[in-house]
Predict the 3D structure of the following.
Amino acid sequence: MVELIDRATAECAEQQRADLHNRLRQIRTRVLDPAQLVLIVGEPKQGKSELVNALVNAAVCNAGEDTTTVVPTLVRHSEQPTALIVEQEPQHGPAALERVPVPVEQVRERIDQAIADGRPVHRGEVGIPRAVLKDGLVLMDTPGVGATSPTLTTRTLAVVAEADALVMVSDATQELTHNELSFLKQVTKLCPNIAVVQPKTDLSPHWRKVVEINQKHLAGAGISAKIFPVSSTIRTQAMHLRDANLNNESGFPQLVEYLRGEALGKHDQLTRRLVAQNVADAVDTLTESLKTELAAQSPRTAAETLVELETAQARAEDLRRVTARWQKTLNDGISELFADIEFDFRERTWAIISQLNETLDEADPVPIWDEFMEWLNGALSEAVQETFGWLDSRREQLRDEVADQLREHPDARPRLDRITPPSPFELVTEPKQPSNGEYRRLDQALTGLRGSYGGVLMFGLITSVVGLPMMNVVSISAGLLLGSRSLNEEKDVRKRRRQAEAKTAAQRYVEQVVFQVNKEAKDVIRRTHRALHQHFTELTEEVQLEITNAIQEIKRSAERSAVDREDRAREIRRKLEELALLRRRAGMLTTNRITAA
Ligand SMILES: Nc1nc2c(ncn2[C@@H]2O[C@H](COP(=O)(O)OP(=O)(O)OP(=O)(O)O)[C@@H](O)[C@H]2O)c(=O)[nH]1
Ligand SMILES: [Mg+2]
């Protein structure tokens, strides 16, 4: 296996693929390392640390109701008991680690002390002589994940990828939570070798029920993991009393058998799969890029070169035609917009003006003035909105028309920001309410008097013929009648004058708004023209450059000597054969163990 990795690594180095090269180096270290790492993970306070202690029958990890594991502890086999505190030394580079030896029986206190002193503790490492660990089993107690802080989860996840097997601890007092299940789902992708351990069976009378429910949960989530119900407390007691029955009762023998048998047994198979997968991946990537290069090496005949050159030149010619066409479309479209926009808004205001005239022909403008202006402004802003909405869609239409002509870039439509319709009313002064609204009482009295005076005089003279005095019932009545009539006439004249004045003012106002709106709209059109022109010019230039480069490349390649190319092609073909062989061997690693070994 190692030789296979080395061959593949060498090929990667030769093809200057540092990424593939590094990955294979990592795999190599893992294959050579006899240690098989089993990570003990789970939510806080489930009994992870206690489980490790019970497994190795030594209090190497800090466990208890009031202690929380903050840094991982690694427990491996060693003839002599040893303990280390591994500290990160950032001043010696980001990955530099320093190992501080400590007496094994003090390891828990020393780690706590170091953390309390603010030292950058990375993990603890304990080596003890235990049969369980003899075949290279390495246990790692980890800080609780999930509930307390999500960063712990990410840190643990990074380690999970390195682990050979995973033991998820969730105590037997409670079924697996939603969080625990989703954590399991997440980690199966990184490490398919998983067991669920449920400690504290001594505390939970219903642990069998819990295990049964959890089996269903796991099946439902599509996770294939065995469940081991155990009691760390009973195991510790059994070890102390050397009582085999009690040990059986603790559930640990099955767990130990699993860890030493299945987890370790599978290790070899997993490593094979890992190596096969990664070597195959690397070889495939190399093959692919070599094939591409080989295709480029095939010597072109003079005729082929000529055809290619002609195609490229035809493209250039085509581009020139297309450029002329889109420029014409854009310019025509813009001039049309200029003409249309002027007419569009004016047409919308005609309806407003005719309604305005109608209103002011009938009503006296003075009492309704405020209401009238509110209506007028409302109608005008509605018209402005409509005009600019229309302008927006016309701009998009024009952009699409131009873009359609650039077939080389069918999706090359610039985004046009929506125009915010202007508010022209700020630039135009509102018309004032018509003057002479007030008709003073004294003036009214005088006008009435003037009318009645004539009436009295006229009818007084007529009635005086029949001998009545100048001032009589008839002449006075006639005076009153004529007086009120001339008063009414005068009021009417004044009202009409006000109406005429109001109409002129309102129409002038509308004219000014029209002027401002047209000015704004034309500005928008001018800006659109500039933006579209710039965008499409850039696009055309890009295509132009691409074509020029292609033509140059064709010429260069035609000049390159055919002999050189033939040499390189031969070399590539030879490499490809070698890679194919390597690929076959990687495949055999998982199908046929004897030949691969
Ligand atoms: N009765 C009983 N108590 C247990 C068992 N396993 C763990 N405990 C107790 O549960 C508590 C938590 O155990 P720990 O091993 O510290 O839990 P942990 O998962 O390491 O906790 P964190 O490191 O804080 O995440 C301790 O008080 C243990 O004594 C068990 O099998 N039976
Ligand atoms: Mg712990």
User: Anything to note?
Assistant: The first helix runs from residue 2 to 14.
